[in-house]
Amino acid sequence: MAPNRGYFCLGMKPKKKDMNLKEVIALITLLDDPDEGIYSEVKNRFIMLGPPAIPHLETAWENSFDAIMQKRIEAIIHTIQFEALQNALKYWAENEQDDLFKGVTIIARYQYPDLDENKLRKQLQQIKQDVWLELHDDLSPLEKVKILNHILFEVHQFSGNITNYHAPQNSFINVVLETKKGNPVMLSVVYALICKELNIPVYGVNLPQHFVLAYVNDYANLFDVSNKSFSDNILFYVNPFSKGLIFNHKDIDQFLKQLNVEPDVKYYLPCSNVDIVKRILNNLVYSYEKLGYLEKVEELKGLEKQL
Question: Between the CA of residue 254 and those of 66, 185, 248, what are the distances in Å?
Fold first, then answer.
């Protein structure tokens, strides 16, 4: 099976030189050269050419019967894709961090470089539409959350993946939308993305060993969440991993006490989208460490440095 294409627009003007087809063909003919020095030069040149070279490399992989050449092509494609991923994540953190969907999609491309972003949007749109049909202007925040919970956890049957809690798949938005199972962070992400589409003020809260959501006052100033008084604007909290269980400030006090963790204002207030993506990356590092995939662990730590 040919390696995944997985190249995508970074939203920036390309800095690399235009690709010359004759040069690409010449480079491909050198991929089976036994001289490691030549291979290293060829690999570096392909990396310089970047994502546009990937279709040509894939064709070469499909037409080759040389296992060494195929392995080299896979390594080059992965390196190109990973560099593009690093650039995309850095650009997102600097320019587009308000778009949580884009951030979590970039992370999913680490494992699924050819994922269909339009398919993900359609899946989210369907859930949003189902919720929207039940909403009306006179509903209280609690009533809105009850509708959200009904649609997400009863109609669409999302649930926490308790039996395989630390599986990497729980951290990829495409898999969570497909299987309807995830960890606390990704279930909260799905919930928050639906709320954003419906202008419902729900935001992530980065608890130790858990992740929940805060429903805030419509008039709260989200640019001033570092101000301790902002907690007065939080109406209640929602736990998507427990099918949308609603709880309050004192419940977080109790949770932190059980963990022997000192209360900190950051455990009660909304966190940034960058913090959410960092949390997803940390979960993936832990997952792959448990599985012994140390190369992936190092790559994911490299991704986190872009934030």
Answer: 61, 20, 10
